[in-house]
Amino acid sequence: MFAAQQALEGIVWITLKEGDSISLLHNIGVYGFLFFSNLFWPVFVPYSLYILEENKLRKKLLLSAFFLGVGVLLIFLFLWWTQERSAQIQGHHIVYTSLSLTLSTLHITHIYLIKYVFFIAYLMSTVGVFFISSIRYIWVLGIILGIGLLATVFYSSQSLVSIWCFFAAMGSIFIYFIVVKPSTHAKI
């Protein structure tokens, strides 16, 4: 899944480098990449861990995170429906248009509050779940994702979606070490 997402962003890079920001291929790259980052991961990650979880309390928490991810997915779908997505190269990074929650009836501080709550919900469904699961060493993936997120925020927060997804794809290599010999991995 990470490879497909990164390949789609490769399409975005190639089309933008060619000066193309309107073709079908470019839009497939943009929306395909954002499909994974916005819609797929917030639901797939908690659901996958929920399916594998054996501890009843942790399973309930992971199910809650799954429903939180579904909420994130629904908000992103609404934003996709109401706002066009685009991408551009800035400073050797791809910047996707921000998901602006432009609610004219709210004061600007409320909009920031909504964005932060939404971001926390996204983080809980994509990163926090690794600290809930009892799968041995899965929390290490949560730490890798957290470090990647912090590095991205400090390095280039405008390019958060692109750079953090790259860190996550690299961090996903750790999953191999978790599943290579599952019989030797006891539950925590």
Record field, number of beta strands: 2
Helix content: over 70%
Main β-sheet, in a few words?
Answer: 2 strands, antiparallel
Write down the domain tally. 1
| Beta-strand percentage range | under 5%
Topology:
Elements: H1 2-17, H2 24-52, H3 56-82, E1 87-90, E2 93-96, H4 108-132, H5 138-156, H6 160-171, H7 173-179
Antiparallel strand pairs: 1-2
Helix pairs in contact: 1-2, 1-6, 2-3, 2-4, 3-4, 4-5, 5-6
Describe this structure in words.
The protein has one domain (about 1-185). Helix content is about 70%, strand content about 5%. It contains seven helices and two strands. The protein has helices spanning about 1-15, 25-50, 55-80, 110-130, 140-155, 160-170, 175-180; strands at about 85-90, 95. Strands 1-2 form a two-stranded antiparallel sheet. The two termini are about 25 Å apart.
